[in-house]
Amino acid sequence: MSSALIEQQSGKGAGRYARRRAAQGRPVRLASQSHNPANRRPGWVTYALLAIVLAFSLFPLYYTMMFGSSTQLEVAQAVGRPPRWLPSTELVNNLHAIFTHHQINFWKAFGNSVLVAVVVSVTTVFFSTLAGFSFSKLNFRGKKALYVFIIATMAIPMQLGTIPMFIMFTTFGWIDSLTALILPSMVGAFGVFWMTQYLSEALPYELVEAARVDGASLFRTFWSIALPASRPAAATLALFTFVGSWNNFFWPSVILRTEMTMPLIVPQLQGAFTGDHALVMTGVFVVALPLLVVFVFLGRQLVSGVMAGAVKG
């Protein structure tokens, strides 16, 4: 802290003392500044605990990769421990076996999963933000009842609608189609709830009124004001939606026949009578790896969105 500021806050004597300390290369800090938690650097204990948590979080992925680096014999002989502790060239062999497997088309399944996850994430964020803007800033008849009804659907298991949706999509001729994966997931009750709670605090009502006075339509107000204001919460919702869509196994296994997504290729690696567990674990590793990459690049947005939601709520 500068000597002038110290002199202003604590008197001329403190200012002269601060200047002498600064000349000696030992700056002075006020007690309020030293004890401020925001200015306190984490100690080695904090870093050690974070390193332990990180190790526990990455251990399942490491465990899976070590299985993929082993032969079937090594997997059979390993009981209660990884077959090996360091990767080997067997991982490359198992990856090549997956990419060239005669029962699966890996790259097509990868493309299908990326397409479905991206489309579902974009549509969920758009429609959830649109609904959140309507419920938080607009007044219309039946708003509270409709909002309660939407939130109540979160208590209904998705498996309850499997048979009706299957019959409906069979009538439409959408069996074995990616459309049947995208349409039911384009918007959800959680996304509507999340964006409504965020926009109710993050978007001042005065901005909406000012846009109306300027002659902006409701959609223009949503597109130019509400959507940019909801960016942290929208990024978090998009990440959660992407992960959920990528890992979805139940509904694709019901509706798809020849088309494949990434979670569906893993059972195809298991034979009818014998199974190569090392190959299966390599498939699990390959399926989980893109999610790790997504979290590495979007982890900051996830934390900022969750913290913003916590502060706003």
Structural key phrases:
313 residues, mainly alpha, MetI-like fold, flat
Topology:
Elements: H1 3-10, H2 12-23, H3 31-34, H4 44-68, H5 72-77, H6 90-99, H7 106-137, H8 143-152, H9 162-172, H10 179-182, H11 189-202, H12 205-213, H13 218-229, H14 231-247, H15 250-255, H16 262-268, H17 277-312
Q: How would you explain this protein's 3D organization?
A:
The model has no long low-confidence stretch (mean pLDDT 82). α6 crosses α17, α8 crosses α11 and α16 runs antiparallel to α17. Among the domains are: 37 residues, no CATH class; 163 residues, Orthogonal Bundle (MetI-like fold). The two termini are 35 Å apart. The chain is mainly alpha-helical and 313 residues long.
Q: How many beta-strand runs?
A: 0
Summed up, the helix count is: 17
**CATH architecture title of the domain at 106-268:** Orthogonal Bundle
The ordered string of helix (H) and strand (E) elements is: HHHHHHHHHHHHHHHHH
Brief synopsis:
With 313 residues, the protein is mostly helical.
